[in-house]
Amino acid sequence: MTIKRLDHVSVVVDDLADAIEFFTALGMTVEGQAPIEGPWVDRINGIEGIQVDIVMMRTPDGHGRLELTKFRNPKLVEIEPAIAPPNARGLRSVMFTVESVDDTVARLRASGAELVGEIAQYEDKYRLCYMRGPAGIIVSLAEELF
Fold first, then answer.
1. pTM, 2 dp
2. 51-58/29-37 β-pairing
3. Residues 24-49: pLDDT tens digits?
4. What is the largest CA-CA distance in the chain?
5. Where exactly does CATH 3.10.180.10 map onto the chain?
6. How confident is the model at residue 2 (pLDDT cuts 50, 70, 90)?
7. Which of 8, 48, 69, 124 gives 20 to 30 Å between its CA and that of 77?
8. What pLDDT is stored for residue 48 in this prediction?
9. Beta strand 126-132 with 114-115: parallel, antiparallel or unpaired?
10. Is there a contact between 14 and 76 (Cβ–Cβ < 8 Å)?
11. Which residues pair with 12 in a beta bridge?
């Protein structure tokens, strides 16, 4: 075996405070935060002069982590389209299992998030939806019905 575990998923955001608010409303907690810069981070990214602020968020069960990254230098690179549809190439979504899809959607909407489509039920197993989160990413929510 070559993998020990999935450590975290990283999301680059424009507004760190808004992203923290969104994922806190989802039920995550801030594990730590720090400014990051130096030759080692330049080398792994292949970009000179990187300066970022990161915040690590942790899921309530303590197993899942999400890294929120705000670039101070260099400036963010825009992609087209800025708000990619669900069928865009690349990272599609980050899924969280929640106690109640309806309650979670209500909390996230209060933070400015919007449903991509609608809440749907898959057989007698799940209630699911996609929400647009920070930096335009899709956050999937799944409520187990079993």
1. 0.88
2. antiparallel
3. 999 999 999 999 999 999 999 899 99
4. 52
5. 9-73, 94-144
6. confident
7. 8
8. 95
9. antiparallel
10. yes
11. 69
